[in-house]
Amino acid sequence: MARSSLETAEVEQRLSRLSAVDEHMADRYPGATHRRQPVHTCYVPAGKVDADTVRRWSREALAALDEHAAQPRDLAGILGLAPQDAAAVHPRVRAKLLDAPIEDLRIDFEDGYGRPDDEVEDADAERTAGVVAEWFRQGTAPDNVGLRVKSFDDPQLRSRSVRTLDIFLTELVRARGELPGGLRLTFPKVVDVSQIEVFVEILQLLEQRLDLDEGALSFEIQVETTQSIVDSEGRMALPRFLRAGRGRVSGLHFGTYDYTASCGLTAVHQHLAHRACDFARHVMQVSAAGTGVFLSDGSTNVLPVGEQVHHGWKMHYGLARRSLEHGFFQGWDMHPAQLVTRYAAVFTAFRESAPAEAKRLSAYVFATGGAVLDEPATARALAASFVRAMDNGATDSAEVYEMTGLSESKVRELGRL
């Protein structure tokens, strides 16, 4: 028997203290969620939401594609795509705009909506809930849909914010008989953890009054103030926000223009690629890592309309690609024509990386070796890339099998390891 110097009991006595660490890590960092993350969130002012909204965005996006990039070579010329990528991406973009143009829709009762009379907002809250209920009844609802309430930073609007949420949810549950899956709530302009705590208590009250399961109402936090990055005492704020959410926080969404304005940037420098935004996004990443909370990048106000469709597309495409490179797989879209470049960016990014990623994933699974020795965590990330691509329409199971030699079920299993 090999000799050792330490007694088993004295080692175990010390190691046992780490059990508390294990419990803490399992509670705070449960790992990636099995929920599918949408590639974008489309914001539509509540007053403009009606039964035709999703179809209208589809029609307008397709019209922009047909007018300005009817052929793959047109899209390649505008966005600088390789011909083979444009040939593969263009028909997939068209199919996406036809079949599922919006993956996540947010009915906006905040900045994009304004401050109408109470009677008007009451009516819009009730009416849009009915629209959403009808979408679900017809099977035409986006995979994710919900509303953005007014923020709690203005004392005069807090009660209004809660009343709108109350009316919307009350009517939606009445019309549906239940809370539909894929419902999303967005809580903007958070400046203090107490706002999160109060919002959670409001959601608990609504669950009780509407006879919903505890925890049925989750929400996204919009990161659009400096105080949501560093609080008044110099601490990182987001970890405290997530704890205060008590497991209800499903996402952190970056707000480009409110955040850059709060940093004191002038209008010309308020854009998504500014280094001030990079800092905020890095804080979001390290705060949410391992928690299962989705990250979403913000928007650009340079729209592809009128005489600047090509310019707007180039700007949006470049920013979407930049977000993907930084590990943000979701962003905001504010205009139907941006759907063209949203999907073009997501699909092209996958096309460019897929051959090398497929080779590495195959080498990992089949132990064939190669120039790169990947760890299990990297293999999981490689597989997750293919899972996202199958889910969002960038590829399909047959193509993935051709590239990797792996079935869809195997790829999905690897992506969850």
From TrEMBL:
Offer one Pfam family short name for this entry.
Answer: DUF6986
Kindly list the GO molecular function terms attached to this UniProt entry.
Answer: lyase activity; magnesium ion binding
Under InterPro entries, the record lists: DUF6986, Pyrv/PenolPyrv_kinase-like_dom, Pyrv_kinase-like_dom_sf
Keywords (alphabetical) are: Lyase, Magnesium, Metal-binding
Q: Which GO terms of type biological process are on file?
A: oxaloacetate metabolic process
**Parts of the chain that traverse the membrane:** none
Cofactor(s), by name? Mg(2+)
The record's section on PANTHER family has: CITRATE LYASE SUBUNIT BETA, LYASE BETA SUBUNIT, PUTATIVE (AFU_ORTHOLOGUE AFUA_4G13030)-RELATED
Q: What is this protein called?
A: Citrate lyase beta subunit
Organism phylogeny: Bacteria, Bacillati, Actinomycetota, Actinomycetes, Actinomycetes incertae sedis
